[in-house]
Hints:
The complex is a heterodimer of chains A (247) and B (269). Chain A is 58% helix and 12% strand. Chain A is built from nine helices and six strands; from the N terminus they run E-H-E-E-H-E-E-H-H-H-H-H-H-H-E. Chain A is globular and about 70 Å long. Chain B has 269 residues and is an alpha+beta fold. Chain B contains five helices and ten strands. In chain B, the strands form two sheets. Chain B has a five-stranded mixed sheet with strand order 2-1-10-5-6. In chain B, strands 3, 4, 7, 8 and 9 form a five-stranded antiparallel sheet that branches. Chain B has helices at 16-46, 56-71, 125-130, 157-163, 201-204, and strands at 109-112, 121-123, 134-141, 147-156, 185-189, 196-200, 210-215, 218-219, 229-231, 246-250. In chain B, 35% of the residues are buried.
Amino acid sequence: MASYLEKKHPLTVRWFHWINFPVLFIMIWSGILIYWANSVFTVTLFGHEFFKFFPDWVLSPSAPGWLPHWVPTADSESDGVKVRMLWDFKQRLAEGMAWHFFFAWIFAINGLLYVLYNIFSGQWRFLVPGRGALKESILVVLKDVGIYRKSLPERKYNAAQQFAYTGVVVMGLAMLITGVSIYKPSSQSWLTQLIGGYSVARFVHFWTTLLFLGFFVVHIVQVIRAGWPNFRGMITGYEIVKDRDSK
Amino acid sequence: MTKNQKPSEAQTPVDPEKRMRSMSRRSLIQAALYAGAIGFGVFKLANSEQADGVPWPFRKGQETNEVIWSKALSAQRKVPTFSATQVTESRQNGDYGLSEDVDPEAWRLKIEGVHGRSEPVEVTLDQLKKMPQTEMITEFFCIEGWSVIQRWKGVRMADFAKVYPPMSTDKSVPDLTNGSNLVPYVGMETPDGEYFVGLDMKSALHDQTMLCLEMNGQPLTADHGAPVRLVIPVKYGVKNIKRIGVIRYTAERPKDYWAQEGYDWFAGV
Lengths: 247, 269
């Protein structure tokens, strides 16, 4: 049997990816701390409010009774009764801002370098959707849910992945632009006005965060589905490829 | 993360499964070390010694951001102004330093550090009303994340400084155009000293920074900071101090109420 090791992800890309992961996590967490101070967004259809961002079970979920006491929790007292919470995202605006505008630099620089790397290395060819990608990406999704059964072209990234991985870069850029619009709406008012004003920038910034969370969920599910060798490829850079003839 | 792994060829005589195993082992150890370093680093960051309500690395971060963003600020470059139809409903937030009643007749604005004056100068409300008045409609940004558009009227700080110029650092004639030789800071306080803000001179003398007497065509109400409040559109609302009692031109960075609670001292928007 002939199988061989194939270089899958360059070291540079793996660094970009694994730096971005904790930084994006911190950005979202600190963003929620900031958003709390003026939490205005809801899902409202036909005058009925279906969901308010964010309910208490997100901001300060109470710890289940069975949770051992040595597990650290966020605690507070209301009317002399001690309340144990898994975490508490309320009343932490100053902390949120401090972290957000610190890690934003790392997020921005890492993202910009990633884009530059793709441009100059030619790696963007794997990532940017080409002709017919829209149709293929739909088939990929249909295949994933088991409706479509024929085989699809094999490439480093299929069309659905291309849309996801290119889309997430566009989302990152949108976060950067709307972020600065919210951060410096007076001194960089040209940008804020270009976006359509302060509250529009906040709206886009918030919903793009939810898109990031959506991306994260799908990404994790797909990584689990693809299995260990694929995940290992993102750490070691290599994947074992079985020779086609021996299949 | 793996470094220096350069298998001579993709197709290798060595059993690839074996190679992969040894490579994985090394890589996973490196990955675990990386994850540990990130976790440890974040823990150390969060638990660093506090500097006025925030771990000190973040205080440094705020100061670095201040250096970067204050460069983008020009005293002459204006922030957007709006038309009367764009004025939004007003909002009231923050009442520190406003607990006592104030008598506008007895109220005095005390100015310290005026060029050529060794003693503080006192200004009455009437004197302020006789100085050149300016009207503007600007957006006011609360640090919480909302904004209002309001019509303000009062004395621009730039005009005020022509009469009461900040002292220069070397006793020379103050350069109000570029602020090149002025002391770098302005501190402001409520009469009871309960609320106080610190400002950089460039922002304080910005073209649209105003000692405001009227809001939306009416004299300021008590909860909006009567008799005189600061309107400084290049800063968050927290710097727009209500009921000013003291203005202090100073070489030392003035204390700031919210900066002591972990917020950025600069607070520029």
